[in-house]
Amino acid sequence: MKFLISLFSPAFLIFIIVNSSGAEMINLNQAVNIALKDSPALKAFSWSLEGQKEDVNAAKGQMFPKLNMEGRYMRTNNPTYSFMAKLNQERFSQDDFLISNLNNPDAISDFQTSFIVEQPVFVPKVYLGLGMSMNALEAKNEEFQRKKGEVILDVVKSFLRVQTAKEYLKTAQQGIEEAFEHKRLVSLRYDTGTGLYSDVLRGEVEVKKAEAALVRAEGILEVAKRALGLVLGRTEAVDTAGNSICLPVYDLSVYLEASLNRNDLKAIKLRQASARDGVKIEKSVFLPEIGVRGSYQMNDHQSPFSPEGESYMLIGFLQWNLFDASRYGKIKKAEAKVNETAEHLSGLEKRINFRVNEAYIRVKEKEQNLSLSRAALKEAEEALRLVRARYENSLTSMVDLLDTQVMLQNVRAGLVGAESDYVSTIAELYYQSGILLKTLDTLN
């Protein structure tokens, strides 16, 4: 009876642990959608994108009229200003022409309220600035799309870690079952007088090791679930549902061609265009600027906003900077920025090519490792079957049986790791090619 309890209690414990976590079950498609909506990294980047949109609105605003209100109070006995103030207030009389009044006027108060509107008509730097801000917004949006791919790669790898941890747990369960079976065989031989008590103790130790491996596997699984929840913007653990992740592998040329349209590559090309516009903006200072300005003015000697005297002005103006030595240095600086972005672009293209080739090589390497691990598992299982049969027939020792069992456990764990590494490297290849998110949308 005690033996039966010791035999089934670990399996019962596993059942309780696995089924009492209460973690939400989601498939990969759901995980991707949740991450795109709730990922803290994407939320933060989206606010940066909103700020860039406002830069475009600010640039557009430069093309609209500007309206200002100005209020001013003055009290003076200055002859010129007194004369002007009375004229603006429309209170000028014949007595004000007297020489004594002109030379020594009484102190006068003037409340002046003005509304001024200005409209640019031809200002090259405004139009060029709008183009720059729109390029910057488009570049920021491309970077945002690239950031989405980075987050989804984290989701895929976290999702895969949970699935891998589950497989490790299954392997640990198999290890316990086989450890108990070996313990049973040892006990039977000891009870019949054909085995050694030291072998019984070895069997007990093997069971304890298997139970420790189970606890470790359970801990790894729980951490993996919480890591997945963290990537999705949650504090609680999240469990995986659905089948294993399946990403097809194509020829290298497919990924190299796709990488030419990577979002970050598009972004730096747009920033290079903005840098060229920056040169044009610096040069546009030497072009004429045309605009119109109008104002409506109220003057009163007692209170503001009172139309004791009213007047307006309409002005058309042209400004032309014919020479400014400081601008030539700024033009050279803007041209240097163009060359800088060109070098960044060239470097990025080379890095992308390298990363895609590196990822493809890793995929082929992991594919061969996976094939070898599967073959090794078949051989290890057959080896354990043969050694167990020999032990049952007293043809080998307990040490050989336990060594073979350990070897099988290691091979099983190695296969789980090889399968995980293979899928992970494929996901990395898709990310480096810039097609991960698009491919997952297609598959789901």
How would you characterize the overall build of this protein?
70% of the residues lie in helices and 12% in strands. By secondary structure, the protein is an alpha+beta fold. It folds into 2 domains: 2-62 and 132-161 and 183-193 and 216-286 and 330-443, Up-down Bundle (Outer membrane efflux proteins (OEP)), CATH 1.20.1600.10; 67-122 and 289-320, no CATH class. Strands 2-3-5-6 form a 4-stranded antiparallel sheet. A hairpin with an 8-residue loop joins strand 5 and strand 6 (309-319). Helix 6 runs antiparallel to helix 9 (263-284). The longest helix is centred in the middle third of the chain and has 68 residues, at 124-191.
Structural class category: alpha+beta
Question: What is the CATH class of the largest domain?
Answer: Mainly Alpha
- CATH domain topology of the largest domain: Outer membrane efflux proteins (OEP)
Number of helices: 12
Tally of strands:
6
Number of domains: 2
User: Would you identify the regions where 5 or more consecutive residues have pLDDT less than 50?
Assistant: 1-20
* CATH H-tier superfamily of the largest domain: Outer membrane efflux proteins (OEP)
Give me the strand/helix succession.
Answer: HEHHEHHEHHEHHEEHHH
How would a crystallographer describe the biggest sheet? Answer: 4 strands, antiparallel
Task: Indicate the proportion of strand residues.
Answer: 5-15%
Shape: elongated
- The CATH architecture of the largest domain can be named as Up-down Bundle
Instruction: Kindly report the average pLDDT value.
Output: 87
Order of strands, main sheet, comes to 2-3-5-6
